[in-house]
Design goal:
- With 439 residues, the chain is α+β, with helices and mostly antiparallel strands.
- It has a single domain (50-99, 115-438), classed as Outer membrane efflux proteins (OEP).
- It contains eight helices and eight strands.
- A hairpin with a 5-residue loop joins strand 3 (107-108) and strand 4 (114-115).
- The radius of gyration is 44 Å and the shape is rod-shaped.
- The protein starts with 10 loop residues before the first helix and ends with a helix.
Amino acid sequence: MGHYLVPMDSRWARKRLYLCNQKTNDDMKTNRLYSLCVALLTSTLMCQAQVSINQCYELAVSNYPLIKQYGLIEQSRDYTLNNASKGWLPQVSASVSGYAFTDVINQSNAMGQAIDMKNALASASVTVSQTIYDGGAIAARKQLAEAQADVERHRVDATIYEVRSRVNQLYFAVLLIDERLHMNRLLQDDLRLSQKTVQSMVKNGVANQNDLDAVGVEILSCEQQAIGLRGQRHAYMQMLGAFIGKELADSDTLQLPTRDVMPSGRRPELDYYDSQERALQARRSLLDAQLKPHVSAMGMAMLHTRVASMMNNAMLAGGVTLSWNIGALYTRKNDLAQLELDRQQIDVSRETFAFNNAQQSRLSNGQIASLEQQIAKDGEIVQLRENIRKRDEKRLVNGLTSVNELLRSINAVSEARQTRVLHEVQLLQEIYNLNYINN
């Protein structure tokens, strides 16, 4: 394109210069407006917090009241172990007593000396006993305390693990509402485009006000549905926030989880059953220890009043004691039978859990396979529905169909999209439920 030089003093040149300056000013205003919009959008995005499902798992566990049970279990175990260890400390006992006698006998000894027997006695004694061998009873009690604490820890683990399932329900409920809101916005966009088309047709006399009102009613219905969905989302976000111990705003977004999720380990219920068996072994060790003899050393100091003139007021005594309580033999058969019953109950609980878990896993795998097939069909259905809608739009412009028919096509597209989104979210939720089941 050629360039022409025009004298600046001409009227056309001044007008062109004015227009150029005006355009420059308009461009500057547009740039400032664009910068302001970008800044507002950036600040809005910065204010929105994104939460992942793994973060919700961690926060829910740390916020769950039962988490405090771990500390209580540890304290109880420490107290029990400390008390058991004190069985090796010397056992000290003190006693004070007084006695009265009747029929005191006076007699002479072989040397002809008289032995004066008194009819009253007052004494005080201190006895110290030190366990030397207890047959392993103290060690067995400590082992049982550890085993019982381990059982309680794994019981709490199994209970807290259920928190993941409840997080899944709330998290995916919000995701489904978010997708439905997105589909609602798309439907509103389609209806507003159709509204502009019908408005143009009304101006040209090929459509009437009833047709335009019918589109307006559909738009209002969509807006009404969006209000209801936002109310449901607010309620679910509040429940999720209370569950994880974090305040969630309506502007916060939940990240869409990936389908690639790896199991984090084995189910805590299996560890719970294993710990119960270890506790049974500790109980058996304690029963065995009760059958063994106990050896202890004993020392005693006694101070008393004289009963006879030849006795001293004080005395010391010491020795070794061997004791063997065979009373445990009387109940041993029943005790062992009870242990066996408890073991069988643990086995039944483990088998029941494995059976139910396998059934849930089969059901979940079947649902995943079914949803994947449905999603493949959903894509084809949405495409066909959109093709029908496009043809109805052209037919409406050409006067070959009615506005109501077009609205039915638009709603059919929206329903197809929502069905596809529903299946996609359900598939994700089922994948995470399967991971919860199998872990």
